[in-house]
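// run 5 | inverse folding | seed 20
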């Protein structure tokens, strides 16, 4: 079933007359309880893959799902590029920064009570941007936020945010770094496997994201896939259901809480 997308516009006029436009996006998988699989509600803020991912690894660059989205949903991806340019303009101006935090937190509180995701595409690209994310989370205390990030060096401003779930995006290239951060802060590790490897010391509570070639989509039953059969019972519990079994009204974020608790 094709993924359904949602886009919502947030126009912003600054006191000095400068005008900005931000875009919130969403899709059937990550709409949480803000919408349905067939009628998602925008509940994410996204940037550009790789370009806005300063700590992208060779593995994630090569397998990033946003490359396909860029081709298939060009209009959505153009909004990511617009967000990327615009957010940088507000970060260096204290007045723009404060106004944008207020606008984001108000919009998110009104439209996304079921949860909000930072970055379907992109990542934390600077310490200033990390501070912006923290300010928005603090200004919308009733909303549960979630982020997946490889920008471990920029996490300090986010540590201690009571309504932000931080997931460390890892693969074979940066797993050792992710483990160190996990040991320090106890953040969950979300591990992308492309070749089928799964670290033996993957911490309890981690989530495993299999690349497309491991999912057995060409088989009558996904669990016939050799990769699935190679996993231990504990590892099978870690696997992302929407990614492995296929997205649907029953297999999507919100219903699945593996990354959100």
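// decoded
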């Amino acid at each position: 079933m094709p993924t359904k997308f949602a886009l919502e516009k947030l126009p912003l006029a600054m006191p000095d007359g400068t005008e900005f436009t931000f875009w919130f996006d969403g899709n059937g998988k990550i709409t949480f309880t803000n919408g349905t699989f067939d009628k998602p509600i925008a509940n994410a803020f996204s940037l550009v893959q790789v370009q806005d991912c300063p700590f992208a690894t060779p593995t994630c660059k090569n397998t990033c799902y946003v490359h396909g989205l860029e081709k298939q949903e060009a209009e959505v991806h153009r909004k990511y590029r617009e967000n990327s340019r615009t957010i940088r303009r507000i970060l260096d101006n204290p007045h723009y920064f404060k106004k944008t935090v207020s606008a984001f937190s108000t919009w998110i509180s009104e439209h996304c009570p079921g949860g909000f995701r930072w970055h379907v595409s992109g990542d934390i690209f600077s310490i200033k941007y990390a501070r912006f994310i923290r300010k928005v989370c603090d200004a919308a205390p009733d909303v549960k936020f979630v982020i997946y990030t490889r920008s471990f060096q920029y996490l300090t401003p986010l540590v201690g945010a009571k309504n932000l779930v931080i997931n460390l995006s890892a693969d074979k290239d940066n797993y050792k770094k992710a483990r160190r951060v996990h040991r320090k802060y106890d953040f969950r590790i979300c591990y992308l496997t492309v070749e089928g490897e799964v670290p033996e010391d993957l911490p309890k509570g981690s989530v495993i994201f299999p690349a497309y070639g491991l999912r057995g989509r060409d088989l009558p039953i996904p669990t016939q896939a050799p990769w699935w059969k190679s996993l231990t019972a504990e590892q099978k519990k870690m696997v992302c259901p929407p990614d492995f079994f296929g997205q649907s009204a029953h297999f999507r974020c919100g219903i699945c809480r593996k990354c959100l608790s």
